[in-house]
Amino acid sequence: MTTNKNVLISGASIAGPALAYWLARWGYTPTVVERAPAPRPGGQTVDLRGAGRTVIERMGLMDRVREVSLDQRGFALVDKTGHVTARMPQDAFGGEGIISEIEILRGDLGQVLYDATLPTTEYLFNDTITGIRQDVDGVDVTFENAAPRRFALVIGADGLHSVVRSLAFGPESEYLRSIDCYTAWFTTPAGGDLDGWFLMFNAPGGLVVSVRPGRLPGENKAGLSFRSAPIAYDRRNVVQQKEILAQRLAGLGWETPGLLDSMHEATDFFFDSMGQVRMDGWSRGRVALLGDAGYCPTPLTGLGTSLALVGAYVLAGELAAALGDHQVAFAGYEEIMRPYVTKGQELPPGGVGGYAPDSAAAIRLRAASMRWMTRWPLRSLVARQFAKAADVALPDYESRPVSSPRLDV
């Protein structure tokens, strides 16, 4: 086996830095390439649940995560006048309900992971991979800006529209399954007092407007969504994306007009389609995929962060257990993660229609069903959905015999 321990990771959001942390712990030398000029701030709130929470604890980062987590009382549906039609407190289902015990902004969690990896990881910001060429002993990689380099392995942790997946596995259209819904997230000045609640307003036509408390004083986090068949737009043209939302949500009630106004001033605006990535295998030779790049479950499941964190832990651990034999390690990674991913990609009851109902009747039904979620007979069904985050047995790689790449191979 090769003594080359250099691993290139594409993507510096959550999965990438988490993998870099564990690889360094096992004696590898990780490099992370990221198109953005720096760690991305803000973003939507993500849930830290089940096995994902266990991974953070094993990294020794839980105290820091709690320091920057959000203080939220729960989730509530409202009508166009702001009247609450249904609510679920944060402590429902043992803190594993719609709002989990630990909610953290994607950018804040990414920053925690980034800080933890700085002593051991090289970051190439404002760059991206343009070419991958494999041979028996390694991978030659070309970049948009940096000089070409050679690595033992390349891992794509670069999200729904993964560059690594396109280069090594084929076009996005072969793997991305749209659920015909588009969504945007951005920071907005705090308006009325949310009293710690994440509020969501639905309008006929599959339109969704939401706002929740931010971490910093004076700011809230807004979300705007609409259901639609695939639409054409420039993924780098933020002005065009904001205009699409303004047109789709024009004339809606509740807080919509003010949120649309602040959207145009937002500097952390993000817009994308919702979809799942479905693949028969997550590796090709010396290239593998991690997190959303290989098995995005959509934000509707609330499990994307757990899948990314657990996947990073398992992938690095299997490489250590296999003494760097990537073929054995990638097979072990797939064997452990596949059942967890399969369950994690199951959409909640109602699917996208439960998140963005298309009629007034469906909106009323959603509110009614939410009021019954904590009662029999719906409680057990809903509890099983939330419990999926913990439905994986995490190997204890630290306790295995002397068989890690901490020793030269």
Note down, in words, how this protein is organized.
It is a single chain. This protein is α/β, with parallel strands linked by helices. It is 33% helix and 24% strand. The chain has helices at residues 15-25, 50-58, 62-68, 106-117, 163-168, 238-248, 256-263, 292-295, 304-321, 326-344, 351-355, 360-372, 378-387; strands spanning 6-10, 29-34, 45-47, 74-78, 84-89, 103-105, 122-125, 129-134, 139-143, 149-151, 153-156, 176-189, 197-203, 207-213, 219-227, 270-277, 283-284, 287-289. It has a seven-stranded mixed beta sheet, with helices on both faces. Helix 1 runs parallel beside helix 4 (106-117), helix 1 runs parallel beside helix 9 and helix 2 (50-58) crosses helix 9. It is globular, with a radius of gyration of 21 Å. The chain starts with 5 loop residues before the first strand and ends in a 22-residue tail after the last helix. Residues 401-409 have low confidence and may be disordered.
**Rg from alpha-carbon coordinates:** 21 Å
Tell me roughly what share of residues is in helical segments.
25-40%
Major beta sheet, specifics?
Answer: 7 strands, mixed
Please state the structural category: alpha/beta
Q: Spatial order of the strands in the main sheet? A: 5-4-13-14-15-12-16
* Poorly predicted runs of 5 or more residues: 401-409
Give the DSSP E fraction (strand runs of 2 or more residues).
Answer: 15-25%
Number of helices: 13
Give the overall shape. Answer: globular
Give the averaged pLDDT, no decimals.
92
For the record, give the distance between the C-alpha atoms at the N and C termini, rounded to a whole number.
Answer: 7 Å
Number of DSSP-assigned strands = 18
